[in-house]
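Structure, all two chains, one model.
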Amino acid sequence: MKIKEKNLTLAQRDATAGLVFILPFVLGLLLVFLPSLIKSISFSLNNIVYETGGYSLEWRGLSYYKNALLEHTTYNKTLVESIISMVVNVPLVLIFSFFMSTLLNSDFKGKTFMQIVVFLPVITASGVLASLNAADVSGGIITSATSGDNVEMQMGSTLVLDLLGLSGALAQYFTTAISKLYEVITSSGIQILIFLAGLRTIPESVYEAATMEGATGWESFWKVTFPMVSPYILINVVYSIVNSLSSNSSPVLGLILETARTGNVDLSLSAAMAFIFCGLELVILAIMVLIVSRIVFYYD
Amino acid sequence: MSSLVLNPNKKDIERIGTFFYKLFRLIIVIGIAYYIIYPILEKSLSVFMTTENLYDKSVGIIPRDWTLINLKTVISTINFLDSSLNTVLISVIAAITQAISCTLVGYGFARYKFPFKNILFGAVILVLVIPVEVIITPLFLNYRYFDIFGIFKLINGEGINLLDSIWPFLINGITCMGLKNGLYIYLMRQFYRGVPKELEEAAKIDGAGYARTFYEVMFPMGRPILFVVIVLSFVWQWTDSFYASWFYSSGKVLAVQVANLSENLAVAKALTGMDNLDARMASMLNGAGALLLMLPLVIIYSFTHKNLVGGIERSGIVG
């Protein structure tokens, strides 16, 4: 008996289902994101001539890109500043949030209080509130109490470092870490949340099995906790990098916006600057993802 | 017998270790709590101080004379009632649409194989990475002269103006183009990848199709993370002044009002002939604005934090 193969195979049906599920995103790409992106790219490659009723474009090729990198007075500097600040902050944030989430996952008195407190900065320091904090130079309420530029802070940390006998680059890193403490604590909220979510997906039974096999606390951490949490480490690395580079206080972004809105309004230059910046960010991310993916362990 | 006394056994060493650990932990907890709470407390309390108290060096963080006048000034300057209503509407719409769409998309990426999957996921990261500042001008124009494949243009010559309404936020939400949506998709994907395949297979054996499997099995499973996504998107949309200032230029959104507070205050004071706003005063009034903005969020947070931070269940496989 001949059976007509009119129906799709299972694999094909699966694929169609998958595509249907991600349809919202694809629509977004096509209707919203890509048109805007392409327009921005074209802005960066053309000079915008404003005419009555609209504008026209004069082709300029890569001249805006060259301008940004070679001629603009502050672009390169701010770019490097942003990246350095990211390289310093992200490891600190990751270490701190991982440490805090393991802490919050265990039981101790005041745990609920701690959970509330730690997540508070996410509410009180996001969006417009973050820029308000950053612009708060007066009365120095937040800044003076907690900044590392505080003289007492610096003397204190130098003392501690002398006692510990650290020197050179390591000491320098520690002083920087301490002076950024406030910044790190308040920007780790999301990461702590994500790590906590990851930690809680590990069933108790796995730990029990490990203890029965004779694993010490240290061993069960590295052989059980760490691998099971690794997908979330990847998310946090990506998110922390993106957040640090595109946060309200990122110097480069400030420069980009400034060029687009104030004084010498130059949309094309701003777009070119933005794309160079994004390109760099993507490269950094790609490298980090490749490195971190090697230690990520998926349950499937 | 003597060997037991002279040699500390493992248990004793462990006990001492645990004691120091607990001490260390206590110090850290107190230190971090101080760091986070103190600035917020100080800023919030300063809002209730009279102007004299503000400049009086002998007054610490607790006001000597309490007053509500600062709050009143700020409330009237920012059109509190109107702005709040708008903000609630926008934030709720954004939160719900984003949560649903991102879950669907994250699930699709996690569980199904289809052509271009990797490229499309790369696009997700791209959307997350590219700061909205870069595409905001074309995006704004897009919503100003909104058009789907030229249909509207045919009708009235230039497309429809969707600004100053909830439409940009609605469309952004449904299509996963909102604030930090790439993160939610990524989060959902990582979560669903960690769910054992046996659950879906069981559903399939019981005769459920794709939609049913998702709706009755996978969606409820993702509830804890879904909750996180809803709360996060609500909070971020609530405090966002960037999208709001572009898409809702009539300005009656809480975050935007707070952002523009200093300007608006200066204008108001100039009109009424009051003294100039100096830095300390401005900082305090900004603090009042921030307080008003934060307060609803903190209230919501106090009711939901148990679910948020403490409610992630174990995997659904038993035995």
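Chain B touches chain A through 104 residues (CB under 8 Å).
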